[in-house]
Amino acid sequence: MPFEPVILFFMLGLLAGVVRSDLKIPGVVYEALSIFLLLAIGLKGGVELARHDVLELAVPALVVVGVAMLIPLACFPVLHKLGRLPRSDAASIAAHYGSVSVVTFAVASSFLASRAVPADGYMTVFLALLELPALLVGVFLARRGQGQVQWSTLLHEVLAGKSIVLLAGGLLIGWLAGADGIRPLDRVFFDLFKGMLAFFLLEMGLVAAGRLGDLRRAGPFLVAFAVLAPICAGLLGVLTAGFLGFSLGNAVLLATLYASASYIAAPAAMRIAVPEANPALSIGASLGITFPFNLMAGIPLYHWLATHLQGVLS
Q1: CB of 270 closer than 8 Å to CB of 282
Q2: Could you report the per-residue pLDDT of 13-41, keeping only the tens digit for each?
Q3: Where does the chain have alpha helices with state H?
Q4: What span, in angstroms and rounded, lies between the C-alpha atoms of 44 and 25?
Q5: Is the pTM of this model over 0.90?
Q6: DSSP letters for 156-176
Q7: What is the longest distance spanned by two Cα atoms in the chain?
């Protein structure tokens, strides 16, 4: 089965970075693409959310967030005890792996669309909700018994960050406007989405290639963790989706959310709350290993797991 075209764009960028090509995406273009993708994902989720009773999503949202908080709590002792990483580094990496990647979610959505597997747009609500809790858990683990944390500064950094503002803003606009109100913007935000995602992944391939050196210095333990942790988290997502009675598409998206690792919101938050943590380890693992793994092998694996679990339960 061929790769998704957007994933091939990522691989092209990764290859260009490895061979030290002079290929570069201007920073202003990268910024514009990230704003577009976040808004488009939020708008689509808001339109779908308008078709549902918001109160009906309250219980699933609580379950999804509650289970997700187990991920950093499980990652921390593995990193701190088995990996013998300092408390600050273990907590920072655990926070990265408990948070989520918007781009990985977008690729999973594209994967499902190419296979005509339906998924509900309100899954974007869970995407927005899962940004913050793991970061708070990570800070708690790092600072437990070690003094005060400037929680107000941390919360402002995360909640006022562009990812939350654009996702939540897009959700609100899409919810208030509904499908009919957003229709004049369909060609801009929905029809062009996959092409814009391809350009963004080309740049992400270049960035990921630049992080491979960090992981070589980190050693084999962290490399193994960066592959095994998303698999375990993805399985947890599939099981949680089965408990909640989610459809196949929703189960794949939830597994992808649990398996993804943040490399935008988490580094910013950890820089403020845990400045002594080494960002090369957390960003190198999440962006250099887990992100490519999820794109090329993880998402198909979560689809396979969700398909077989539904077959067992049915």
Answers
A1: yes
A2: 989 998 999 998 888 988 898 889 888 88
A3: 5-18, 27-49, 58-68, 70-77, 87-98, 102-114, 123-129, 133-143, 151-159, 162-182, 186, 193-218, 220-244, 248-259, 265-273, 279-283, 291-293, 299-313
A4: 27
A5: no
A6: HHHHTSHHHHHHHHHHHHHHH
A7: 55
Region label for 54, one of left (φ > 0), alpha (ψ between -120 and 50) or beta (otherwise): alpha
Q: Collect all residues with Cβ–Cβ distance below 8 Å to 124 and sequence separation of at least 6.
A: 41, 42, 44, 45, 46, 48, 49, 167, 171
Alpha carbon distance 264, 31 (integer Å): 12
* Residue 3 DSSP code: P
Of 94, 50, 100, nearest in space to 70 by CA:
94
Q: Among candidates 22, 6, 158, 147, which has minimal Cα distance to 95?
A: 158
Structure confidence by residue, pLDDT tens digits, 42-75: 898 888 888 878 888 899 999 999 999 999 999 9
Q: Which of 57, 270, 65, 58 minimizes the C-alpha distance to 161?
A: 270
| 140-165 core/surface letters (b: 16 or more CB in 10 A; e: else) | bbbbeeeeebeeeebeebbeebebbe
| Token couple for 11 | 């691989």
User: What three-state secondary structure class fits 71?
Assistant: helix
Measuring CA to CA, which residue among 38, 45, 58, 34 is closest to residue 171?
Answer: 45
**CA–CA separation, 34 and 277 (whole Å):** 26
